Amino acid sequence: IPVEPFDLVVFGGTGDLATRKILPGLYRRFWAGQIPEGSRIIGAARSEMDDAAYRAMVHEAIAEFVAPDKCDKATLTAFLDSVSYVPIDARGTGGWQQLAGLMRDDVVRAFYFSVAPGLFGDLAQRLHSHAIADPDSRIVVEKPFGRDLDSARKLNATLAEHFDETQIYRIDHYLGKETVQNLMAVRFANILFEPLWNAQYVDHVQITVAETVGVGGRGSYYDKSGAMRDMVQNHMMQLLCLIAMEPPYRFEPDAVRDEKLKVIRALEPVGHDDIVRGQYRGGPRKSGDDELSYTEDVEDPHSLTESYIALKASIANWRWQGVPFYLRTGKKLRARTSEIAVVFKEPPHSIFDEDEAWRENVLAIRLQPNEGMNLSVMIKEPGPGGMRLTDVPLDMSFAEALGEDGADIPDAYERLIMDVIRGNQTLFMRGDEVEAAWAWTDPIIAAWEERGDRPKGYDPYSSGPEDALMLLHRDGRRWREIR
Ligand code: BG6
Predict the structure, then answer these.
(1) Catalytic position from the list 59, 130, 235, 473
(2) Which residues hold substrate (predicted)?
(3) Is 211 labeled as ligand-binding?
(4) How far apart are CA 99 and CA 447, in angstroms?
(5) How far is CA 9 from the centre of its chain?
(6) pTM higher than 0.90 for the full model?
(7) Catalytic residue at 162?
(8) CB of 142 shorter than 6 A to ligand 1
(9) Which residue ranges form the domains of the chain, and what is each CATH number?
(10) What gap in Å lies between CA 226 and CA 309, rounded to an integer?
(11) Which of 173, 221, 305, 413 is the pocket-test mutation for ligand 1 (most atoms within 8 Å of CB)?
(12) What are the mean pLDDT values of the chain's consecutive 10-residue runs (483 residues total)?
């Protein structure tokens, strides 16, 4: 379904995120027929260049990041015709009059702040003083949204000086992932799971976001953040919320966000013993070259920043009393795999022989790769050998189950940008949610900084530090394999 015609200004239009995700994503939506004629994309950044040079740059980005079968000449030309560029000085006056002159009254106006957070305030203020934004305009802001509660509050206050909360779209691209949205469909559109979705039947939950990439190239940003700020405070927190929240009364922005907020507010503080931080080591590669260690990647031999974190979180409410949520994420791990696993309890009484190995029912929701769901169930082993039990997976890959439609799952950014144009905030974080997430994160970070904790070393392409295994072993549980 096409969205309304729009003018989308991408501040930071020559940057990495714009060229890797935003512009190729917009092109794919254009190719799919979702962007109506008359819509315009206006890149804005500091570099002096004209429309033709910017179009050439966008063309290059599309060639690199969009599958060739979508890049036919006619579609490409039509898309590039809708693209233009304005050189702009975010902190000065240059370019703002020109941008104001381009704005049209009869289309949706959206402004994507794909720039350093330090510039959010300047952009917001200038959009107003030059009368570029109207009361229906939307702004899209990227993470990191602050680096602690104090800075997030200030950022919210700055944006609030010029924009109403209903105009502010705080992106967490995990919410745009197809499987993450599916999580809500699975929970709330089926009768099967919800009755079991509580402390009576769920033993624990594991949320894993493992990556194989290191931090090379982004070291200067990453070293100031670490896995807790980069992944846990936002992406993992959102996953946790969607798993743990109460059913919202409707699938509507504030109904959903109210429920997520309640989960964050119910999170218990996390003690020292319930966290393991890690940092990848270097090592020889098969090729004979050396694999750089984290400290070499960030060029600081003394860095204490974590590239891996595992922690045990608890939600102090009626539904989740006593159910641990184990979270782990890290760079340079064995495989790129993200999943949420809901591990159910044993049946209350076994009618089978004691020595029949019982294995728990697990509902695993795979975010990537090969998005899908897997439910492990116990069955009888085939054959005449008596009643022997074994577990088998009920496995579903969305791509296979949905045929062609499933094979072409849109990128998170595509979905989210279209939601901005539609004016739907359901998959965007509200200001109070972000603040609550920092309020939980801050004391955890402050405690390890105060103690001067060193992260544990782990080998590149392993499952992370040994100590992380203990986090579950001591509770009589084990992590699912990263593969
Ligand atoms: C980003 C983090 O927000 O998410 C990166 O800053 C991380 O460090 C990335 O690599 C992971 O996203 P995805 O979609 O590749 O899982």
Answers:
(1) 235
(2) 173, 177, 211, 230, 331
(3) yes
(4) 47
(5) 23
(6) yes
(7) no
(8) no
(9) 6-142 (3.40.50.720), 175-473 (3.30.360.10)
(10) 9
(11) 173
(12) 94 95 96 94 97 97 95 95 96 95 94 94 95 95 93 95 97 92 92 96 98 91 96 97 97 97 98 97 76 95 97 98 98 96 92 74 91 90 85 85 68 94 96 98 97 96 95 96 92
